[in-house]
Amino acid sequence: MNNSSASLVFSPAFTWGVATSAYQIEGGAAADGRGPSIWDTFTHTPGKVIDGSTGDVACDHYHRYAEDVDIIASLAVDSYRFSISWSRVQPLGYGAWNEAGFDFYSNLLGKLEEKNIKAHITLYHWDLPQGLQDKGGWLNRETTLRFAEYAAEVARRFGKRVATIATHNEPWCTANLGYGNAQFAPGVADTVQALQVSHHLLLSHGLAMQAMRAVNSPARLGIVLNQWPATPATDSAEDIAAAEWEYARSVQWFMDPIFKGRYPQKALDRMDMAQFQVHPEDMQIIRQPLDFLGVNYYFRAFVSTENPPRQPEGKLGFSDMGWEIYPSGLTDLLLQLKAEYPDLPAVYITENGMAVADQIVDGKINDQARINYVQWHLEAVQAAIAGGVNVQGYFYWSLLDNFEWNSGYEKRFGLVHVDYATQKRTLKESAYWYRNFIRSQTAA
């Protein structure tokens, strides 16, 4: 890996951004008519979050958004990716819209427009309104229709003010962590339910794409998927087969319906499909043309069938989440996607980042490990572009230290440190590095 960023040169049109999500930063949990989401319910249930915390206040972005946009502008990025809290703009997930909630996002967009920062919005970052969960949540096919109505309303109001709209962020997590192993809201551990939820999420994506196009939204439309290559630990037939299964059940499970109109056979061969409800028209609805694909990349899958399983060497280390740092996996993944899906649209790296156990020393946070991480992954992006992948942008995750789901506030991904007791924001050394790097690109 390079120790210098001098060899990194991207197109002048390349998008540089930072990313956040609503429940992780907004706070204002009951402000101005916002309804509860499944994450409000989950975090207020004892034992669900490691440090017992909630997103009730988080980074208080709901009240501090103007300050946060000023920080974004100071980083020299041209784009900001954030999600909309569905229950803030429609408290139950159905019925009346909440104008105060829409006003918040309109004001946020206005502040971004003042700073010439493009908005990239995500409709769903895991925070289903509790009102819909009470009716069955994503297990209920009717939820897909409610999501399409919500998508159309957001696109109607904001479609001319934003660069892109993504339907879902990481539906794999919604299905497998929310319903497969109960790590995330709503806290269900049932693999059959997880399978059905994954299908309804894809169906809701297709319906939402149709609904947004029906209101003539000029924003580019797409979806954001978390993806990883699967590396067999050895060259044994068992490990190779297990790696192929892992890739099929994760990456191809969501990509094949969107781009090929079917589920991957390698996954179907190993699943009990008896309770998996797919209507005849569903795959055609899911297979909507995308204007862009968002790829979130943090690690590879290192697949071992040994007992106990072999572990990766972690030559570049591990993040504070315990995730192996493996930048070349991003290149491998992108090149594999290009080979498998000839209709692959423009790609944005919509999330990539590292949790570090940051320490403030003399008022500064020297997070060189994070700087190395970003530089290595930008090298990986550059290699993918050289290989013919149409990568058009990179968003660091995340702008701020924030509520990190079931890890609570113990893990810090931000370029900006947040003192949760005082809400003081402090730029880390990685923030200054990222700013200077972007300036070097735009000046080139």
Question: In short, what is this structure?
Answer:
With about 450 residues, this protein is of the alpha/beta class.
Please supply descriptive tags for the structure shown above.
single chain, about 450 residues, alpha/beta, TIM Barrel, 8-stranded parallel barrel, two-stranded parallel sheet, 12 strands, about 40% helix, globular
Describe this structure in words.
This protein is α/β, with parallel strands linked by helices and 444 residues long. The protein has one domain (15-443): Glycosidases (TIM Barrel). The protein has 15 helices and 12 strands. It has helices at residues 22-25, 38-43, 61-74, 86-89, 99-114, 130-133, 142-158, 171-180, 191-214, 237-260, 265-268, 282-286, 328-340, 368-386, 429-443; strands spanning 15-19, 79-83, 118-124, 164-169, 220-226, 230-232, 292-296, 301-303, 346-351, 391-397, 416-419, 424-427. The strands form 3 sheets. Strands 1-2-3-4-5-7-9-10 form an 8-stranded parallel β-barrel, surrounded by 5 helices. β9 (346-351), α14 (368-386) and β10 (391-397) form a beta-alpha-beta unit. The radius of gyration is 21 Å and the shape is globular.
Q: Helices, strands, pairings?
A:
Layout: E1 15-19, H1 22-25, H2 38-43, H3 61-74, E2 79-83, H4 86-89, H5 99-114, E3 118-124, H6 130-133, H7 142-158, E4 164-169, H8 171-180, H9 191-214, E5 220-226, E6 230-232, H10 237-260, H11 265-268, H12 282-286, E7 292-296, E8 301-303, H13 328-340, E9 346-351, H14 368-386, E10 391-397, E11 416-419, E12 424-427, H15 429-443
Helix pairs in contact: 3-5, 7-9, 8-9, 13-14, 14-15
